[in-house]
Design brief:
Elements lengths: L1 H26 L4 E12 L2 E2 L5 E3 L5 E18 L4 E3 L6 E5 L7 E8 L1 E10 L3 H4 L7 H7 L17 E8 L6 E7 L9 E13 L5 E8 L1 H5 L11 E2 L2 H11 L4 E8 L1
């Protein structure tokens, strides 16, 4: 009797294991879905709004009236550590504060999975840049459209960030400032951002997660490297741009939350 009971218990345990494995297999997501990256531009602790005064740590008061940046080369990391790379030809976006629709990037044809990290570039990577204007197709055409003005007038290169407005300081009263980043000399200044998600983005055929990313533009000019407009109203090259891209830009992005609905 005891032997029969042991055989029964063993058989029941094996059935439970097989059922569990079968359920795990059935719960593995399949197919493809979409994922959205929502960029919310802020200035310090405030929502970034055009023509609104913000005071920097050096006492300068800035008002922003133009803000455009390039997001590129998006890579998504799954919970098992493997990655999905959005095809490069489909992975260049112009986030324009003046165009609300552009602040949400929709990524279609994403393999269904649980994603834990997002990586992207700010700017255009050197390999793409080296193709020259003729080899860059729609990217170059879009960037050079006067409505965006994300190419340099004197060279076949891209502006990675265009950040403009007015500044009031000891020597200036609503003077126009311009901060444009991109390649300077032999330094390419492309920045890569990688952020863990506070909760998994569950891409499914019927679920489109939205990853809400805060972009703090105070840190562009008032971060680890501080820009003093008393030294010049145009920041477009040299060590200042290099320091902005190397020190400030990598710290300005943060994932606030993820919507899975």
């Amino acid at each position: 009797m005891k032997l029969q009971l042991k055989k029964y218990v063993a058989a029941l345990a094996m059935a439970l294991v097989l059922t569990s494995c079968s359920n795990d297999d059935n719960n593995t997501p399949t197919g493809e879905g979409s994922l959205k990256l929502k960029f919310d531009n802020i200035y310090g602790n405030a929502n970034l709004a055009f023509n609104t005064p913000y005071t920097n740590s050096n006492g300068e008061v800035v008002k922003v009236d133009k803000l455009i940046y390039i997001v590129s080369n998006i890579v998504l990391t799954k919970e098992d550590g493997t990655t999905y790379t959005v095809p490069k030809s489909e992975s260049y976006f112009f986030v324009n504060e003046a165009d609300a629709a552009s602040t949400t990037i929709n990524l279609p044809n994403i393999p269904a999975a649980n994603y834990t990290k997002v990586t992207f570039g700010v700017g255009v990577d050197q390999a793409q840049f080296n193709q020259g204007a003729e080899g860059q197709g729609n990217l170059w055409a879009t960037a050079s459209d006067p409505a965006l003005g994300m190419t340099w007038s004197w060279a076949a290169g891209y502006k990675f960030i265009k950040f403009e407005g007015t500044v009031t300081s000891a020597s200036h009263s609503n003077a126009v400032f311009r901060v444009h980043t991109g390649k300077t000399g032999d330094i390419y200044n492309y920045a890569e951002i990688s952020m863990d998600l506070p909760e998994q983005a569950l891409v499914r055929t019927n679920v489109t997660p939205q990853v809400h990313i805060m972009a703090d533009f105070k840190k562009v000019i008032d971060g680890t490297t501080k820009i003093n407009f008393e030294e010049g109203l145009s920041v477009m090259g040299g060590a200042k741009v290099q320091n902005i891209m190397a020190n400030n830009v990598p710290t300005m992005f943060e994932v606030d939350h993820v919507h899975n609905d």
